[in-house]
Specification:
Layout: H1 3-17, H2 19-31, H3 43-63, H4 67-82, H5 87-106, H6 113-186, H7 190-205, E1 209-215, E2 220-227, E3 236-238, H8 246-249, E4 254-256, H9 273-276, E5 281-288, E6 291-299, H10 307-373, H11 379-403, H12 407-412, H13 414-426, E7 432-438, H14 445-466, E8 470-477, E9 481-488, H15 495-501, H16 506-515, E10 519-524, E11 530-537
Parallel strand pairs: 7-8
Antiparallel strand pairs: 1-2, 1-6, 2-3, 4-5, 5-6, 8-9, 9-11, 10-11
Helix pairs in contact: 1-3, 1-6, 2-3, 2-5, 3-4, 4-6, 5-6, 6-7, 6-10, 7-10, 10-11, 13-14, 14-16
Length: about 550
Amino acid sequence: MGVMKQNTFYLVSILRQKREQIAARWLELIQSIQGSHYQTFTIAEIQASCLTGIDALLEWHERGSDQGIERYVQQISLKRLEQGFDIREVIQALMLLQRAIFLTVNSEPSGDAARVQEAFFELDDSLRMMVSQFGFLYSSEMNRSLAEQRQQARSLAEENARLYQETHNRLEESISIQKITSALLQERTLEEVLNVVCSEAINLLGAQGSTVFLLEEDNLLRVAYSVGPGKPAFQTMPVESSFTGKAVVLNQAVFTNQARDEPVWFGTTSSSSEADVIDSLLAVPLKSKAKIIGVLAVVNKYAPFTPDDVRIMGLFADQAAIAIQNGRLTQEVERIVVMEERNRLARDLHDSVTQSLYGVSLYAEAASRRLASGDFSGVSENLQELGTTAQDALKEMRLLIYELRPPVLEHEGLEAALQARLDAVEGRAGLKTELLVDLGDRLPEQIEEGFYRIAQEALNNVLKHAQARNVKISLKASDHRASLVITDDGTGFMVDSGFDKGGIGLSSMIERAERLGGKLSITSSPDKGSCIRVEVDL
């Protein structure tokens, strides 16, 4: 047996005779590695791995076969990779095997130091081969794992990109709907609302035209507003015999990208110029409180209509229907207000101006009779009374004129309107007036209108009842609140009795303030004048 074979025999005998001791030493050394993944393993798991590694070395040195080493290395490379090990941790544990053998052998007296040294040289070579194989397999497995991870990352990135785009699109849609809703809520008249609905529907889908139909009691769709091409040549059409009417019949949105083949408006396909420009159409029911009030039709999208367009327009139509109903209610309220205002003016004309003019005619007739009879002594008295009555009638007429919304309020704002009123009415009536204003920009139209009407009613009361010499109006606004204060130095009154009388407009002023979302307070007492304060949040 050669020297190498003797050394091999000696090494094998050490590994075989001291297998358990070497495994125990190796386990202790591995456990001493600070911060290692091995510390999460049980002793039994580490010991089994150590014994497997020693047996792989025995197979190599006894039989000259590296299959055991390859199996061992492959096993731990795969397992440790899955367990999240760093390559340095595994190599460090493998190199500790040499030290474990050295400590085991060195703990007992040795007969031949030279032979032990040669055996360790050979062990060093085998361990280097084991580490080299492990590094190769580890790198291969890592590359395979990285390739899988890259593919997974690529797939995940593509999915994330899709989800991001979808989320982005939904966010853009939500922002658009929010902006449209805000725009709709700002409009007051029905015509303004319908214009916004049609225009924004076109912008939202990238279409060419749109029409709002309102459903009438006789099951007809009436054109309420239209923007762009495709406007129907008629004002009404039956629900049952048109593609647009399907939205009402089916109670859901319908669309076609071959509109030329459909009776989109009326019961039959038409050769009119209006029908010829319609290539595609999306009709969405407008519903308020689950009741269909009409149809929003959008025509000629630059790309084909899709189910996603149906979803978007469904969201839009819900907001549009609310705005349209509010516009219709506003229109009806304004009509009622106009009728009430006409009736009130008629009553005021009858109760005040008409009576004054009747008095003028009586005094004029009396003066005429005295002149005819030659009784000149009473003519001067009659003329004086006629002049006084005419002045009263003129004052009443000025009040009635200013009961109407003055153009200056709309064009120049509340400050200018109040000053014009004070100059034209109170100033001419002999009152000393003062207007104090501390505003930035103009107040919202609704607040300006409300403040003017309250001030108007209060000033009328001052003229008719207060017998005042001075009247002052203070108008202020901050970032969050606006206030209107009217004070006079007149006779004053008991506030409770003023409410009971109901003839000086206190209730109407309070109602106007409440409609603005504000609060009106009144301070007054006999011979102490009056103060009316209105505060509204902006």
